[in-house]
Amino acid sequence: MKDASAPTAPQTIYLKDYAAPHHWVDTVHLTFTLAPQATRVLSRIAFVPNAENPGDLVLNGEQLTLLSLRIDGESVEYAVTDTHLTVAQADLPSGAFTFEAEVEISPQTNTALEGLYMSSGMYCTQCEAEGFRKITYYPDRPDVMGVFTVRVESELPVLLSNGNPVASGKGWAEWHDPWKKPAYLFALVAGDLIAHNDSFTTMSGKEVDLNIYVRKGDEDKCAFGMAALKASMTWDEEVYGREYDLDIFNIVAVDDFNMGAMENKGLNIFNSSCVLASPETSTDATFERVEGIIAHEYFHNWTGNRITCRDWFQLCLKEGLTVYRDQMFSGDMRSHPVKRIEEVLQLRARQFREDNGPLAHPVRPESFVEINNFYTATVYEKGAEIIGMLRRLVGDEAYYAGCALYFDRFDGQAVTIEDWLACFAQVTGRDLAQFQQWYSQAGTPRLSVTEAFSGDSFTLTFTQETPPTPGQAVKKPQVLPIAVGLIAADGTEVLPTTVLEMTQASQSFTFSGLAARPTASILRDFSAPVILTRDIDATTRAFLLAHDTDPFNKWEMGRMLAKDTLIAMITRNEAPAGDYLDALKAVLTDDSLDPAFRALTLGLPSQDDLAQTLFDAGQTPDPMAIYEAREALRHALAHHFADVLPDLFAQLDAGTFKPDADGSGKRSLRMSVLSLLSLIDAGKAAQGLFESADNMTEQAGSLLALLGAGKGEEELASFYAQWFHDRLVMDKWFMMQVATAAPLEAAQIVAKLTQHADFNAKNPNRFRAVFGALAANHAGFHAPDGGGYKLLADALIDLDSLNPQTTARLCTAFETWRRYDGDRQSMIRDQLMRILAKPDLSRDTTEMVTRILG
Ligand code: 0A1
Ligand code: ZN
């Protein structure tokens, strides 16, 4: 063996450098002998040289102890670094060969939660993106696909891997996955688990065994997830014609997990917070999230697994499309308008924020240091918006025809965005070259519009401009589908929703034959991910809030009124306008509207959103002033609605808990009402509900209402006494205290909570419950003395040694630092420099902090 063991410096990887591998994989046989600190992994891999790109055998491998290595049964010369194992081409047989190796790894000490690790006594894996290389030597890249057979040896009762079960006996089990796959979809689980079992008959009549595996005590939290899985399977058959392709589909709930869930072939692994649900312990929001994530991971079976990504730059190929699919599914299961508003809220809060700061990157990035840093809102959510725009532009029929062609043409392959778009170009005969820019150009386009009426014609003139982002100074015009409708003065719609296709920097569209000047409803259903500026007065906004037939824009008008009101309160010390309060009250009390919609309309823009809006308008946001204005508006709303709140609260009792759209909509409005009511009734209604609630939505909702009104100490203690044994409910207990902490108390509350016996930095859910909530408590995080910054930086410095992925992700708390005043900027810069100065800082965190500093 040659030992070239000098540590490799982090390298930037470029899309333009993509080259096919020197070797393809045919079959893979793995045998795992599990032991907490000394697991043995025996591999037998059939390699085939790539005639088109011959060369050395290059395998990835990290943190492995190599015990033996053979090629076609013979020992051979090889070189090992801390990241690779190489066998020179000259030392390889001329044709196909079998590579065999044995390595030892230590799952128990793996706190990064990548590769094979242990969580609450069970073994589990996370291989996406590049975790398989911590399990054994392998070409760990998504374009190398193989057929896996896996043997697991352990005394633990449940032993799982991908594909179908082949055979098992005492202390062992064998699995075979007939579908070739990249290593990132490999999974293994071993534990003392209980199965919640069911079955599904596919459209061609095949019976599939379904299981959700959980720890003892969680059996009663599986039924909802199972129903969501079956609904997802039916939906993908009915809507996309996609059938499931194995005899068994397993889901496993794991307590320690960096992300939400993972689509490993036939063996999805879930963060337990994203699959377990029961009325007593989970809120409506959790039920909705579980339903969406189960669907997302299941839908990956076709968009991601059967057809995968050629390289990690193409991540949006599977993620954007799969998010789009899960969004449509959730809309079908619940309410499309409500779902769309929630999507846009999330897009603006996360993706626009990212796109407007130092971490902005194209949906298909062109370079990365650590791919784990690119599982972003841009890749996922903007990626989904691109699919939605494509569908709007080509129409439903061509959209489904393009998808069908994609599934047919690329099944079993690892492909690119170009391959995906070529299917739609073929089906429609369109040139999608300009549209493809959505994948390469970062930044959120600013769209402005002017209106003119003359004779019987109404003209809309749009102008678009995308601001510079890191590495991209000059931007080209994007293709924008702009959905518009026109409304007459009496509220009737004179032009139903019509999609305008904007391709130029500036472009006009004229509508003729109009009897009078209409009011335009623009960017209906949020038809493109842009920031729209439109100079319209409060009266027109109130008119659209009352009359727009497009629910998204109806909501949007309320949101804009709220924003204008808050900005006037912050910058000009104005009192909230009576018209706005009246318009909102009309929505609040309009029984003909969906309660979920009314709740969303009642919601105020977040402090972070207001800070960005002020910054965009050329001002320096003052977090304390934003906080105070928002609190003052909440009080003003409570007083203005005082005469209707108690009755609404009583009427909105949804009765027996059902986590469906109807019930959750009612509860959502009821909790919004309660949070205002608590500001004026000394907390009486909330205390009453807290005592009597039989579901977590109302129990946590009433506690939050109390905390938000500066009360709830006793309730917080009794909540703890009731739920201290339930880790997922305890995450809420931690989170709620930080989320509702007053600005000048937040850091102190966080510091105290990290000393609590139930705080555990090694568990990502618990760490995020505290520090994610601190970052989300805008005024608390940005407290004038910098205490919030320091506390987060301290925690990240400690966490980086344990879990680089979660550390890097939470660094995004600092991504908006250039918005704020000089003092805050310099305090944040100091903390970022302090993180960067930590010896042995991970590659993940180094990349993130470096990019944020810009
Ligand atoms: N593919 C998963 C998300 C995921 C990505 C990375 C992970 O570990 C680094 C884990 C999960 C999904 O989209 O659901
Ligand atoms: Zn995904």
Automatic annotation (TrEMBL):
Protein transport found in the keyword field: no
PANTHER family per the UniProt record, alphabetical: PUROMYCIN-SENSITIVE AMINOPEPTIDASE
Protein name according to UniProt: Aminopeptidase N
Domain Aminopeptidase N-like N-terminal: 57-185
Pfam annotation, one family: DUF3458
Residue ranges annotated for the Peptidase M1 membrane alanine aminopeptidase domain, each copy included: 226-438
Matches recorded under InterPro entries: Aminopeptidase_N-like_N, Aminopeptidase_N-like_N_sf, PepN_Ig-like_sf, Peptidase_M1, Peptidase_M1_dom, Peptidase_M1_pepN, Peptidase_M1_pepN_C, Peptidase_M1_pepN_C_sf
Species: Aquimixticola soesokkakensis
Catalytic activity: Release of an N-terminal amino acid, Xaa-|-Yaa- from a peptide, amide or arylamide. Xaa is preferably Ala, but may be most amino acids including Pro (slow action). When a terminal hydrophobic residue is followed by a prolyl residue, the two may be released as an intact Xaa-Pro dipeptide
CDD domains, sorted: M1_APN
Any one GO BP annotation for this protein: proteolysis
Family membership: Belongs to the peptidase M1 family.
Gene3D superfamilies, per database record: 2.60.40.1840, 3.30.2010.30, Neutral Protease Domain 2, Peptidase M1, alanyl aminopeptidase, C-terminal domain, tricorn interacting facor f3 domain
Domain Peptidase M1 alanyl aminopeptidase Ig-like fold as annotated: residue spans: 443-534
Keyword Cell inner membrane: no
Cofactor(s) for this UniProt protein: Zn(2+)
Keywords: Aminopeptidase, Hydrolase, Metal-binding, Metalloprotease, Protease, Zinc
Domain Peptidase M1 alanyl aminopeptidase C-terminal: 540-853
EC number: 3.4.11.2
GO MF assignments: alanyl aminopeptidase activity; metallopeptidase activity; zinc ion binding
